[in-house]
Design goal:
Length: 614
């Protein structure tokens, strides 16, 4: 029994129904005729509980729909209402049998044989035995509507709401569907909207909406009664079936999900790759610092161009030795009677004064390393041994001097490079230089040599010494320029990494949103079939978990390939470790689930009837 008691429905200032009172006949087919916009669909929305914005009462059996909460309305629809839509609202990718079972997928023991057998029996009775396991998108319009009818009957509801069920069918198929509905109406209350007056003649009752009232054009003489008591507790939704539906939906939309997952995976892998590139850059910077250790060398002279700039070298020596940023502090002296020999050519230097490494640059090769027997020479000195001075790099040269015992000492040194010094000069490695000083009788130091421990500490040491009014030579200017360049590069790589990730996320969001907006009807259908919002959220969340898992797997593959490419190109991988993989997994899980959650919120919150009509 369906009763309308003083029902008034308005849309803004427009009144659709005004104090309508009517009692529908049980076990009958009632057809609603009338033009579009007259209020036929509005009445169905009220009866289905899609629209609760009305005054008065709608009583189905013993239940007042107006009193049902948002959580109780889906249970009411699940147990009491069967829906047949003009556009069928079947889910593509599902078979005919799966579409019928969708109405009970969420019900207790939905996988039990009784439901499967009942669904198969319904399809057979409706002439669809050959199409039971056929995907619905391959069926004809009439076959699709038969599947929809079977779905509406699977829960054995007391009421069938058919919203223009023949509107998309040819005349022959329409007549066939009407015969089926007529037969169903012998045991159930069937309410049908139609624009076809000929089809309306199948109805036991024909009702039109005029002057905000229901006007009976053809009255039913049926006195049958059916059980219209709502069964709000007879079917209960089960979470284990939500995963089954989520997995099924995931498979149906797999290609789109794969594309979105690849985008997110490429974004996260590229992010890790650019972070790894930053590590490669840092590695290169470290290698640069190691190969150019002479940048760390500083010198404090007693005289500069004949002017005394540091009077008390002993005090300065003590200060340097106490500085934690400084190491390898030693005095330097002017050496006399130094000779250089190569290929039967000998060049004598009467006086060799210490040279500050910070005042010279390399033309070819590198500065001498402290613990090797190496030297660098100026172009003018090199040209006396070889016209093509670059050929001297790597060659051996003999350096001779007289020790404190008066004996000549000869050292074999490798020419590590050619400097840009404008006069005849050379610089030997620190270990060789200190040995020479130990073996001479010279006592008056002319300068102090020291090494700064850290590359980045050089400008700090320069400032500390200048603040103490110590004249000093260091490479602080070059170091500041290098550090500025290094910092800019690191910032650039960081920006690029976040930009790549942001672009991938943006495109992925668009892809997921596209998937989402195509599913409004699906979500509306689930709601109409009795799924509560929390159940739909659960289904979508399980899809998100599957999606994030797919994205994570793809990202791991992509980052592994990227790592191999880096090794092949740079001989240095991305430095992947457990932390890197955990970061990658967490990033993919978080991003894919969060994006899906944000997008799905709008989807889930859409009103049922609005979602169905999108």
């Amino acid at each position: 029994m369906i009763q309308l008691r003083n029902v008034t429905k308005k849309y803004g200032d427009t009144t659709i129904y005004s104090n309508v009172n009517y009692e529908f006949k049980d076990a009958s087919l009632t057809c609603f005729l009338g033009p579009s916009g007259s209020g036929k669909s509005t009445l169905f929305n009220l009866l289905a509980g899609f629209d609760s914005d009305f005054t008065g009462e709608i009583v189905v059996g013993t239940t007042n729909i107006k009193d049902l909460s948002p959580d109780e309305l889906p249970s009411y629809r699940l147990n009491s209402i069967g829906f047949i839509f003009q556009e069928y609202h079947l889910l593509d990718g599902y078979t005919a049998l799966e579409n019928v079972l969708l109405a009970v997928y969420s019900a207790k023991n939905a996988g039990a044989k009784e439901y499967v057998q009942k669904a198969q029996k319904l399809l057979v009775e409706l002439g669809l035995e050959p199409q039971i396991h056929q995907k619905v998108q391959t069926l004809s319009g009439g076959q699709k509507q038969r599947v929809a009818i079977a779905r509406s009957l699977i829960n054995d509801p007391a009421i069938i709401l058919a919203d223009e069920p023949t509107g998309a069918l040819d005349q022959e198929s329409a007549l066939s569907i009407m015969k089926i509905l007529k037969k169903i109406s012998t045991t159930k209350t069937v309410l049908m909207i139609t624009h076809d007056e000929e089809l309306a003649t199948f109805g036991d009752e024909i009702i039109e909406i005029e002057d905000e009232q229901l006007i009976v054009k053809k009255a039913s003489i049926s006195q049958k009664t059916v059980n219209t008591t709502t069964k709000s507790d007879s079917l209960q939704l089960q979470s284990n079936d939500f995963f089954r539906i989520g997995f099924k939906n995931f498979k149906i939309h797999l290609i789109k999900y794969v594309i979105a997952a690849i985008l997110i995976a490429c974004g996260s892998a590229s992010f890790l790759g650019t972070v790894g590139s930053k590590e490669i850059m840092n590695h290169s910077i470290s290698e640069f610092k190691e190969k150019n250790a002479y940048f760390n060398k500083g010198m404090i002279p007693k005289y500069d161009q004949g002017i005394e700039v540091n009077k008390d070298l002993a005090l300065t020596y003590e200060r340097l030795s106490s500085m934690k940023q400084v190491q390898n502090v030693y005095y330097q002296y002017d050496l006399k009677n130094i000779s250089l020999t190569m290929k039967d050519v000998t060049i004598n230097n009467e006086v060799k004064m210490p040279t500050a490494p910070s005042t010279v640059s390399m033309v070819y090769g590198n500065m001498p390393q402290d613990n090797k027997k190496e030297m660098v020479i100026s172009p003018s000195l090199a040209s006396k041994f070889e016209k093509q001075i670059q050929k001297l790099v790597g060659e051996r040269m003999a350096l001779s001097y007289v020790n404190k015992m008066g004996k000549k000492v000869t050292i074999e040194l490798t020419i590590a490079g050619i400097t840009d010094t404008q006069y005849d000069d050379f610089i030997v490695s620190a270990s060789v230089e200190k040995d020479m000083y130990k073996n001479t009788t010279i006592n008056n130091a002319t300068s102090i040599s020291f090494d700064v421990k850290g590359f980045n500490e050089i400008p700090k040491v320069q400032k500390l010494l200048i603040d103490k009014q110590v004249a000093v030579y260091t490479n602080y200017k070059q170091v500041e320029n290098f550090n500025q360049a290094f910092t800019s590069l690191i910032k650039l790589f960081t920006f690029v990494s976040y930009f790549v990730l942001a672009v991938a996320l943006f495109i992925s969001t668009i892809m997921l949103y596209k998937i989402s907006i195509e599913r409004y009807k699906e979500i509306g259908l689930l709601s109409a079939l009795g799924f509560k919002r929390k159940h739909i959220k659960s289904i979508l969340f399980k899809e998100s978990l599957l999606f994030s898992g797919l994205s994570t797997i793809i990202s791991l593959i992509v980052v592994h390939i990227l790592n191999l490419l880096y090794k092949a190109q740079f001989n240095y991988g991305l430095g992947l470790n457990l932390y890197s993989y955990c970061l990658l997994i967490a990033m993919n899980m978080f991003v894919s689930i969060v994006i899906s959650f944000i997008i799905n919120q709008k989807l889930v919150k859409t009103e049922t009837i609005s979602a169905i009509r999108k």
